[in-house]
Specification:
Blueprint lengths: L6 H21 L10 E5 L7 E7 L7 H12 L3 E6 L17 H18 L6 E11 L3 H8 E2 L11 E7 L3 H4 L5 E2 L3 E6 L11 H10 L8 E6 L17 E7 L2 E7 L3 H20 L1
Parallel strand pairs: 2-3, 2-4, 4-6, 6-8, 8-9
Antiparallel strand pairs: 1-3, 5-7, 10-11
């Protein structure tokens, strides 16, 4: 004989389902499926439209440093957009303890840039014909697919990337198949950001790669800074001791150190300003 649940049991099940629905709806944070990043816009005085710099932070996550750099850009008459690839997605980068995988992080950055470029049509102060991309370390994962051949990602119509700056781009990006760049590029690197002379990592890898590019028509400037490690231009490292860790690379392990360097930091500001001024005049 089949026993059917009583009305009381059915009511209890219904209440239980309702409570579960309420808990999921109210207490579990929602991540936007269409916009899972933060973008802070900075504008100089005036109506514009202004040339615009889009910034992508390194693996360590967002910090006030990038916003200070954006404020500096506005003093030179440029708009700036600071992307935060982590916060909306969770606690990535929090106290330098949790990070996405390299491949996962790259996908986030590419998706975020495509999304923000599409929104620029609704920003009258942005000159979409004069976009400059800047990435630090893992932030190169946002920039490289949009400026290099092969496997280039197309930008939206009526949008033009006119130049790029990569500051100590990550070694994983150096392993990629890049035969040329489609825009002028400036690469900043500390000479000690090579993991104790390992020729397959950091400074050494990128310097060798650039020397082998086939297309020499567009300028690729490689700035080298004596005595500088990874993260040399991040002021929040100023009062911290040098910190090193072992990193697994494609062809072995190497030691990667981070330390602020005042002299290299100031020289980078000068070289960046000169580079940006030159390409915007072309």
């Amino acid at each position: 004989m089949i026993k059917y649940p009583s009305n009381f049991v059915l009511m209890r099940r219904g209440v239980k389902k309702l409570l579960i629905f309420i808990i999921i709806t109210i207490f579990i944070p929602k991540i936007s499926l269409t916009k899972s990043y933060k973008a802070d816009f900075y504008y100089p005085n005036g109506e514009g439209p202004f040339p615009t710099i889009i910034m992508s932070h390194g693996r360590g996550g967002p910090s006030i440093t990038y916003h200070k750099k954006a404020e500096g850009a506005t003093r030179s008459g440029r708009a700036a957009i600071v992307l935060d690839h982590y916060t909306v997605r969770g606690t990535y980068g929090n106290k330098f303890q949790k990070f996405p995988t390299t491949v996962e992080g790259e996908k986030w950055r590419e998706k975020d840039l495509i999304n923000v470029l599409k929104t620029l049509k609704d920003k009258p102060k942005i000159n979409r014909k004069k976009i400059i991309l800047i990435g630090w370390s893992a932030g190169a994962g946002m920039v490289l697919p949009f400026i290099s051949k092969p496997n280039k990602i197309e930008v939206p119509k009526d949008t033009s990337i006119v130049g790029a700056i990569l500051t100590y781009p990550y070694t994983f990006g150096c392993y990629k198949n890049i035969t040329s760049f489609e825009v002028p590029v400036l690469i900043n690197y500390g000479k000690l950001d090579g993991n104790d002379g390992n020729p397959l990592s950091g400074y050494y890898c990128w310097k060798d790669k650039l020397s082998k590019l086939r297309d020499k028509i567009l300028p690729v400037v490689f700035k080298e800074f004596e005595g500088a490690y990874h993260g040399y231009d991040l002021p929040f490292l100023k009062n911290r001791p040098k910190k090193c860790r072992m990193v697994q690379y494609k062809d072995g392990k190497g030691q990667s150190c981070m330390e602020f360097n005042e002299n290299a930091f100031k020289k980078t500001i000068i070289s960046n300003k000169k580079f940006i001024t030159r390409i915007l005049k072309n």
